[in-house]
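P.,

For your records, the input lines for the assembly:
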Amino acid sequence: MMDIQIPDISLSAIAPEITLTLTAILLLMLEVFAANKGRDHLGYLALGGILLAALLTTRLVGDPVSTFAGSYVVDNFGTFFKLIMLLAVGMTVLMSMRYNEDNGVDSGEYYAMLLFVTVGGFFMASGADLMTLFLGLETLSVALYVLAGYTRTRLASNEASLKYFILGALSSGFLLYGMALVYGGTGATKLAQIGTAIAHGQVSAPLVAAGMLLMLIALAFKVAAVPFHMWTPDVYQGAPLPVTAFMSAGPKAAAFAFFIRVFAEAFPAMQADWWQILWLLAVVTMTVGNVIALAQDNVKRMLAYSSIAHAGYLLVGVTVASEAGVSAVLFYLLIYTFMNIGAFAVVSVVAGKGEKYTTFADFAGLGFRRPLLAMTLAMMIFSLAGIPPLAGFIGKFYLFMSALEGGFVWLAVIGVLNSVVSVYYYLKLTVYMYLKEEGSAVEASTAPFSPAMAVALVIAVYGVLAIGVMPAGYLAFAKTAFLSF
Amino acid sequence: MNSIPLLSLVTFIPLVGMFVIFLIDRENRGLIRGVAFGTALVDFLVSLPLIFKFEPTHEMQFVEKIDWIPQFGVSYHMGVDGISMLLVVLTTLTCVICMASTWEAIEKHVKEFMILSLLLETGMIGVFCALDFFLFYVLWEVMLIPMYFIIGVWGGAARIYAAVKFFIYTMFGSVLMLVAIIWMYYHQHEVTGVWTTDILAYHGLAISPSAQMILFLAFFLAFAIKVPVFPFHTWLPDAHVQAPTAGSVILAGILLKMGTYGFLRFSLPMFPDATLASVEWIMVLSVVGILYGAWVATVQSDIKKLVAYSSVSHLGFVMMGMFALTVPAVEGAIMQMLGHGVSTGALFLAVGVLYERRHTREISEYGGITKVMPIFATVFMIVTLSSIGLPGTNGFVGEFLILAGSFGEYPIFTVIATSGVIWGAIYMLWMFQRVMFQKITKKENENLKDMNLREMAYFAPFIALIFIMGVFPTPFLKMMEPTVVNLIKQVKGEAAVAEYLPAQREVPQAVADGTVVVNDIHNSRL
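Structure tokens returned:
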């Protein structure tokens, strides 16, 4: 006879997730009323939900709480990722308001979808069980497929959505297959139990190894690591700009959370096997991303390749997998969220209605036509390139430092040389903005930016400067985020 | 010593001026220029006490230290010794002159230009004062952005190529240095158990000779590109020629000194074994640089390019002096660094004066300018002679000390290098003859206006320095000597500088007998 056990459930531990879900459902319901169509206040409602969730999330900083029979764990590691997600989604909502109005996007569902992506990301950051992680990933992915194709009238957007869906579904298949093999090999779905089983050698090694490899492929797809990156440029270029901005930061952070959790918690005993694969993946990803970015003439696509390169830098931290390596990844993702969304936000202002102006030539002379806007973009770009005193520098510094600490000297050398290569295409944008004579695109960026957009840009500038000049506080937080793991 | 954070003031006053300019309306150019010039002037005045309050020891002075990123052991640590203090004052002075020289030269985007110039000034001063690796690296890279824009926005026809090349070339050099710094950071933790990025903690750190060599090469690349040492010099003619006058002055006067300063502050004291093992091939590169720079300068048809290549030659002397590792040679190298800053800065200003009037830098476009611009001709002559190294000017002191100090150790290299002095006279005087003497052949040159009061005013400090440093270099040498002696002690050990140390341990017999006075040995080297 079996007793039905009711697992311990701590609702306060998932209060942020509940808040976000309820806000999303509320948005869906309000959207039905015609009076709310195309109005900003749905955006402000979404923002309210995000702020409340952020408040609730910060209250969870501290000792780890394990709930739902150990399938969900709220620790500083997950909390840090959740805060990154919230930052990303908050900035995205701010930059979306104007964009949606200009492009005739129905706001309610849009914001609801963004929030669903975030909830999915939360589950990926806190999942301690393969099932929870998978459910989180699917929630996130399905909502993202919809968002990528949200501007229905643009052909590129439809194409992006379809491509993303087909390849994404394929990678989910890999992931599930891998999970099944790991389960078959270890008899457990909880990460901690899998880890213990492998450490004690009570497993069928070939099954686990094959499962790990399949999961690695799926995760490499999600973080857009070469050679699983093919979808990225097309999807990033085709998706609506705010969605692209969001995708490049929020879901990417969630995928890294998933990645690190699985490899550091379930497979640490096999590090000798997987570090070489990851090493190669990191090197190839950053090199290919940077080299192809050199040849782009569309800013959106250039940023897509640059985000592939940045995934390569982040993989350095995952490869090292030490305490420093993981907190360097957390820290870099936080910075990356500020600077990448900031850069995309400026691009979306310049691009104007229907995203007409996104080539380099459209940015010619921007520096003196719209000094503040161009200065913001220049700061984001220099930060992405890793020039001090902007935050991107200290982020890379910490990443490569962790690589050297772990003895990966060549990985660090290849990394810094790669960032020199990246300087060339980042500079190209400043060349167009400041160094070229004012070009043909004078009519381009006359669109004023909305107050909400201004707030988003101020947040980005603040992040890039504050973390760059005074990183101590943020670093301290990133460091505690690993310890409670 | 005093509670005023003098170095922070000197470093960050330009930044304050920058924010003020940020708030001024862009059409109000007079005010923008005034504020920029005023900021630079105030900064120069504030930096003067550094000279007067400086005590001639090798200790770091005016030290400030505050925790910055405690997790990494990074602190905001500033301080100057006998070498960096002089470079700081040279920087503040050069910036005042540059601001004055741009009054009419820069017409386009004045606001942005001044903002970038002041940001650059903060970066440059900071690099010389930084005593923390992290702080140093941040400021070292910070300088790239404003210089990139100054060349790229206000430069000549090929400015974009020159600016991007400058940026990427320099950045390439410095990132490998960054890896080396981080490697040392962990190594130092292993040895001492303390996490710190304090530069002074790395002086005398025990590193195996083979590791030293790799680290030395990583640092060498960064500094050699900045100096530039042959064959890493190719960015320099492009950048110098394309940059606006003020940009060229700052590039030649200050930025090139960052590289040589880097050798003195990092490479020599931190990697003594590697330094001693590398002297020979660095000597070869220096001598090649001296001669190659001079020869290429000789055949230039563009005045600015000629001056740019002359820098390659002059910096070859500096490299040679530094790595000869005798007290006179290193002192000579530092004098040459200062002297080159003054005389090449002035040369670029002179070229700028001509360029503002004729908008060409081709030597063949000029000729007979002496007749229409007599005051300018005098100034240009003085500057030219100082660049050649005529006795009585600053150029002579540096080159003489370098050659005299190197001869004992490396006679053959010194003899070859000395011929570079002759080549210097050839290309400079030949250029001067073609530009200033002979008959006026071009109609446009007949009505050129001579220098106005503003132009004379900004040349005056350089001219004065040329003579002061040339005739009476002792105060400068006295200020740097303890630092230089200490530096060579760090590299070669105490024996190499025994004659310069206070005679406390081993008093030579002759001295004890009173037949030779210690001071005589000390002074006789001049």
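Two observations worth noting. Confidence is low (pLDDT under 50) at residues 504-526 of chain B. Strands of chain B lie at 61-69, 74-80.

Regards
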